[in-house]
Design a protein that fits this description.
Elements (H helix, E strand, L loop, with lengths): L10 H10 L8 E3 L9 E5 L8 H12 L3 E5 L2 H12 L4
Length: 91
C-alpha cells in the first residue's frame, strides 16, 4: 500500500500511483507493529475542524474489522498520546 498524502494529480500520475498501491481513503500514517490487541495502527491527521471523507470512513471501518487500530489526531499532543497508548501494549 502506498500512502501519498493527498494532492491534485494528473490522470497519468494517478494511474501510476494506483498501480503502486494507492488506496482511496487510506490513513496518513501506519505503524506496522502488533501490540497484542491490534495488528498495527493507522493514523489519520486532521485539522481541528477536519472531517473524515466517505472513503476515509470506509477505510477506517475495514481496518477496524480486520483488527487494526485506527485513530484520528488533530494536533501533536493528541498524536503523542495516541502513539504512547498504542505502544504501551507492545510486549
Amino acid at each position: 500500500m502506498a500512502i501519498p498524502n493527498g494532492g491534485k494529480r494528473s490522470r497519468t500520475e494517478a494511474a501510476i500511483m494506483k498501480a503502486e498501491g494507492v488506496y482511496a481513503g487510506a490513513a496518513d500514517l501506519f505503524i506496522p507493529l502488533c501490540n497484542g490487541k491490534w495488528y498495527g495502527l493507522f493514523i489519520e491527521m486532521k485539522s481541528k475542524t477536519g472531517r473524515l471523507t466517505d472513503n476515509q470512513m470506509a477505510f477506517r471501518d475495514k481496518v477496524l474489522y480486520n483488527r487494526y487500530s485506527y485513530v484520528v489526531c488533530r494536533d501533536l499532543d493528541e498524536f503523542v498520546i495516541k502513539i504512547n497508548d498504542y505502544m504501551s501494549l507492545v510486549t
